[in-house]
């Protein structure tokens, strides 16, 4: 064969080989790849959307958008998109590139404290390839960035390195016409290794036939991997919470949910597969039917977090499935069936542990109660007390809830319990139990809260496991639960997080899966009136009484319909009750002198309706809803008596009231509702006037009446007026302070705080020991300090008044506000706390008669102050996030709306 022919054949073979190689590479590049198979198995979340621009456009029309654009992830994404815009021909090209294609985003945990995202973007056409190539070329020409291309296990990886900001670095590579992009080169390299191992399986393999994007109004598929969810949460939380996180996460191994968005809500609904490994929570809850959240009738409105379980037999949580009851604790645990709820209440500062309540439903309340009573150490003082219709009992078994229901319910050093309907309520503090029963009694519970109503209506009505978070109430609990690094991040983003005011996460058994629902609710903003958004204040009503008013407005309730009512007094000493809604006068009562202190309400009389208690200079009054005095009233203490304060004690919440007054000479009187002075208080003669009204506390079953005198003496008396050992305490200073008390399980563990006029903050216990003294800065010799307790007595601030200036301090002595005012006239400071950040500071300049309102960030609300010379009263609307401020000015009662931020 001629040499020329041989060369020609060899060349033809080479061409065929090159053609085949090129064709195979082209075919390989054209091969369709399921992007889910590229996602590493350790992804915590994976989000898939088929129309990213539509999702963004929809978000921009909601209240959510303004908040989301303040989060670090979205801010960084916005920066990256802005960069792409600048390097391409404009946003329309970027929008067209992203439009109508399935894009994935996965979240991963790196190390112990970092999280990072990976984006998976298909490149489908020649035009799209050209667009990407142009972007990369322009990026390489930009001075701010450097492109480093390297080979990694057979794939070309490009690192986009910012010369100015490491947070803007990116790494990407292309696989079968798909871009894989991340700020973490480690994650990109992990995906390359996964490809080379030939293990291209989706972490969501269980849901290969599930696609919620085909349903109307669904914007994304969201996959959750619960086996790696603890890794994510543990980057934020303290170590002592990790066992609980691991246990709760072990109910299911994964979820696939469809994302829907409304104006202020994110809905995620779908199904979850149970976790079948040994020791998982599913093993204890398998086979139990979901239960309705009837606890809504008992959970207090001030709840921060509720963990709710629905179980056919609650005892299943503490034993292996199928194992028979063998001990007394087993039998007691098996008497409970239905609902189990662990509730954490709002903490008013980060240093204070949140109060907790355990609710458990009993299938046989009488049996459960009988068995629990066997753990009570007799009926001695402190082991049992009556509170209204309830008996609160102390049980001797340490960590009883943990023994009954498992390790998630630890933390009850001692246990107090009582029964309400077919539920048993457990607390580790008797004061918590008393307050809880009071809240239930007056209807301050979820089922009667306007703010909770939308959440209760939209959530699943039945569940096996539910987590409910009220973000404003849970803020301090959240800060206390996270590590220091996360704490600083939370504080930096607190305004963003707090706008998402409720969160629900529910699982309900449905055949061999759990129907799963997540709702994230954002506070309403778009419906706020423009005038409120602009001015902050909106005076909507006034009521003219034709006579000069001499008192603040006392906020009360109409005894029949419980509507808001305002009680004021005019210069003729006539007391008027005005309906706050209609502005109609409900009743009037002519008195002989000015009302001393406040007007209070308690249920009393023939119909057990709310009646009005108040005092004048020497009389104690009680009138009904028509302003008529009840039988035996008023009580006259003598013409020479000059009363200072009135308080009403109800020792056992049994409506067996004691009326407590003190006069200008330091005499303290306590009488019953027939006007009979009580033994030891007829009167109790002390050596100085009282700095504030006497206060009642119940500690370990014993009544404590705390009295603070202006000359620096502090007394703690029992019912008979006998001083407890260790009292009086002498502080050797002048006092004008109220006392803030936190009742513990004993006298030694009950702490009380006050502030001296010179700014020393003093804490003492009921053994008479001073446990702490701290001195606040006193910039001027004329500076005067005063404790200001909010009306419900749950928290306080400290006010410092200097000539023309007011400074406010928190309970941990952190400066909240420091502001100069127009005049040097006396200032009246008030503090209102309605849970979470719903706080209001009111400073009234009594000279010019102006009241200034400040929010929790010490920012002034409204362009103009409210005209008044007296303190104000405030009601809060949780649904509208609005304060209603009642004030008096000359002869007019004013009602002003203040929009919260």
Biggest beta sheet attributes: 20 strands, antiparallel
Question: How large a portion of the residues is in β-strands, by DSSP E?
Answer: 35-45%
Extended strand count? 54
Mean pLDDT, all residues? 86
Structure report:
It is a single chain. Residues 5-30 and 527-534 have low confidence and may be disordered. The protein is built from 19 helices and 54 strands. The chain has a 20-stranded antiparallel beta sheet, sandwiched between helices. The protein has a four-stranded antiparallel beta sheet with strand order 23-54-53-52. The protein has a four-stranded antiparallel beta sheet with strand order 24-25-26-27, with no helix packed on it. The chain has a domain at 27-203. The termini are far apart. By secondary structure, the protein is α+β, with helices and mostly antiparallel strands.
List the helices and strands and how they pair.
Blueprint: H1 3-30, E1 45-49, H2 52-60, H3 64-68, H4 72-87, H5 91-98, E2 103-110, E3 114-122, H6 126-141, E4 145-152, E5 155-162, E6 170-174, E7 178-182, H7 185-197, E8 220-225, H8 229-234, H9 242-249, E9 252-262, E10 265-274, H10 282-285, E11 291-292, E12 303-311, H11 328-333, E13 336-345, E14 356-362, H12 365-373, E15 384-387, E16 390-395, H13 400-405, E17 415-420, E18 423-427, H14 430-442, H15 453-458, E19 462-463, E20 465-470, H16 471-481, H17 484-492, H18 494-497, E21 502-510, E22 513-521, H19 530-535, E23 537-544, E24 554-557, E25 564-569, E26 574-579, E27 585-590, E28 596-604, E29 609-615, E30 619-623, E31 635-636, E32 643-649, E33 658-663, E34 667-671, E35 684-685, E36 695-699, E37 702-708, E38 713-717, E39 729-730, E40 740-742, E41 751-755, E42 760-765, E43 770-775, E44 784-789, E45 796-802, E46 805-809, E47 815-820, E48 827-833, E49 839-845, E50 850-854, E51 866-867, E52 873-877, E53 882-889, E54 892-899
Antiparallel strand pairs: 1-2, 1-8, 2-3, 3-7, 4-5, 5-6, 6-7, 8-9, 9-10, 10-22, 11-19, 12-13, 12-20, 13-14, 14-18, 15-16, 16-17, 17-18, 20-21, 21-22, 23-54, 24-25, 25-26, 26-27, 28-29, 29-30, 30-31, 32-33, 33-34, 34-35, 36-37, 37-38, 38-39, 40-41, 41-42, 42-43, 44-45, 45-46, 46-47, 48-49, ...
């Amino acid at each position: 064969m001629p040499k020329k022919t041989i060369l020609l054949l060899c060349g033809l073979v080479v061409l065929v080989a090159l053609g085949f190689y090129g064709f195979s590479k082209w075919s390989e590049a054209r091969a369709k790849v399921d992007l889910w198979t590229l996602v590493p198995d350790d992804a915590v979340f994976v989000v898939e959307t088929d129309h990213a621009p539509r999702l963004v456009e929809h978000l921009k029309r909601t209240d959510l958008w303004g908040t989301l654009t303040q989060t670090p992830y979205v801010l960084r994404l916005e920066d990256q998109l802005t960069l792409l815009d600048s390097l391409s021909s404009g946003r329309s090209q970027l929008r067209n590139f992203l439009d109508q294609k399935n894009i994935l985003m996965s979240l991963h945990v790196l190390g112990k404290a970092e999280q990072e995202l990976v984006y998976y973007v298909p490149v489908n056409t020649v035009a799209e390839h050209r667009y990407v190539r142009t972007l990369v070329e322009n990026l390489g020409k930009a001075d701010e960035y450097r492109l480093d291309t390297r080979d990694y296990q057979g794939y070309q990886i490009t690192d986009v390195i910012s010369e100015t900001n490491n947070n803007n670095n990116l790494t990407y590579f292309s696989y079968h016409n798909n871009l894989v992009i991340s700020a973490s080169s480690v994650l990109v390299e992990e995906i390359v290794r996964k490809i080379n191992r030939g293990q291209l399986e989706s972490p969501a393999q269980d849901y290969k036939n599930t696609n919620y994007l085909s349903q109307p109004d669904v914007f994304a598929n969201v996959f959750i991997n619960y086996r790696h969810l603890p890794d994510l949460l543990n980057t934020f939380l303290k170590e002592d919470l990790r066992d609980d996180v691991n246990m709760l996460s072990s109910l299911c191994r994964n979820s696939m949910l469809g994302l829907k968005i409304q104006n202020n809500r994110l809905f995620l609904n779908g199904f979850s597969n149970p976790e079948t490994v040994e020791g998982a929570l599913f093993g204890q809850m398998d086979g139990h039917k979901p239960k309705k959240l009837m606890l809504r009738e008992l959970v207090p409105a001030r709840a921060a977090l509720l963990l709710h379980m629905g179980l056919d037999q609650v005892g299943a949580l503490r034993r292996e499935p199928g194992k028979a009851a063998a001990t007394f604790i087993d039998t007691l645990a098996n008497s409970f069936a239905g609902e189990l709820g662990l509730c954490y209440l709002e903490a008013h500062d980060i240093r204070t542990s949140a109060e907790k309540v355990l609710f458990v439903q009993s299938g046989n309340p009488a049996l459960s109660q009988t068995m629990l009573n066997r753990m009570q150490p007799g009926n001695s003082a402190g082991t049992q007390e009556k509170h209204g219709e309830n008996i609160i009992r102390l049980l001797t078994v340490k960590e009883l809830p943990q023994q009954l229901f498992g390790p998630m319910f630890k933390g009850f050093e001692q246990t107090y319990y009582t029964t309400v309907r077919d539920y048993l309520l457990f607390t580790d503090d008797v004061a918590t139990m008393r307050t809880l029963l009071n809240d239930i009694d007056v209807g301050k519970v979820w089922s009667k809260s306007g703010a909770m109503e939308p959440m209760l209506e939209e959530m699943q009505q039945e569940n096996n496991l539910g987590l409910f978070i009220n973000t404003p109430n849970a803020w301090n609990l959240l800060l206390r639960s996270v590590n220091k690094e996360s704490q600083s991040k939370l504080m930096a983003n607190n305004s963003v997080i707090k706008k998402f005011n409720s969160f629900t996460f529910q699982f309900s058994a449905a055949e061999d899966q759990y129907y799963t629902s997540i709702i994230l609710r954002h506070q309403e903003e778009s419906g706020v009136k423009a005038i409120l958004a602009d001015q902050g204040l909106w005076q909507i009503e006034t009521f003219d009484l034709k006579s000069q008013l001499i008192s603040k407005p006392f906020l009360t309730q109409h005894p029949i319909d419980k509507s808001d009512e305002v009680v004021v007094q005019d210069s003729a000493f006539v007391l008027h009750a005005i309906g706050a809604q209609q502005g109609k006068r409900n009743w009037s009562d002519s008195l002989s002198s000015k009302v001393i202190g406040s007007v209070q309400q308690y249920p009393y009389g023939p119909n057990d309706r709310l009646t009005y208690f108040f005092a004048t200079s020497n009389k104690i009054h009680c009138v009904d809803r028509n302003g008529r005095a009840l039988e035996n009233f008023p009580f006259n203490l003598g013409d020479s008596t000059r009363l200072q304060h009135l308080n009403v004690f109800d020792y056992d919440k049994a409506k067996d009231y004691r009326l407590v007054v003190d006069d200008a000479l330091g005499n303290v009187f306590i009488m019953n509702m027939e006007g009979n002075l009580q033994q030891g208080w007829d009167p109790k003669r002390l050596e100085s006037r009282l700095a504030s009204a006497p206060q009642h506390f119940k500690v370990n079953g014993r009544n404590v009446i705390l009295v603070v005198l202006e000359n620096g003496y502090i007394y703690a008396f029992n019912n008979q007026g006998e001083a407890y050992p260790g009292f009086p305490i002498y502080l050797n200073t002048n006092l004008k302070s109220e006392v803030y008390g936190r009742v513990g399980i004993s006298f030694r563990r009950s702490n009380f705080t006050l502030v001296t006029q010179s700014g020393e903050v003093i804490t003492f216990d009921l053994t008479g020991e001073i446990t702490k003294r701290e001195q606040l800065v006193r910039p001027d010799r004329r500076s005067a300090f005063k404790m200001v307790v909010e009306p419900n007595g749950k928290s306080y601030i400290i006010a410092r008044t200097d000539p023309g200036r007011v400074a406010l301090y928190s309970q941990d002595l952190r400066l909240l506000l420091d502001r100069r005012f127009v005049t040097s006239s006396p200032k009246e400071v008030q503090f209102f706390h309605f849970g979470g950040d719903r706080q209001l500071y009111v400073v009234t300049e009594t000279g010019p008669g102006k009241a200034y309102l400040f929010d929790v960030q010490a920012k002034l609300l409204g362009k103009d102050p409210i005209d008044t010379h007296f303190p104000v009263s405030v009601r809060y609307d949780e649904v509208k996030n609005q304060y209603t401020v009642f004030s008096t000015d000359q002869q007019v009662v004013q009602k002003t709306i203040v929009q919260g931020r």
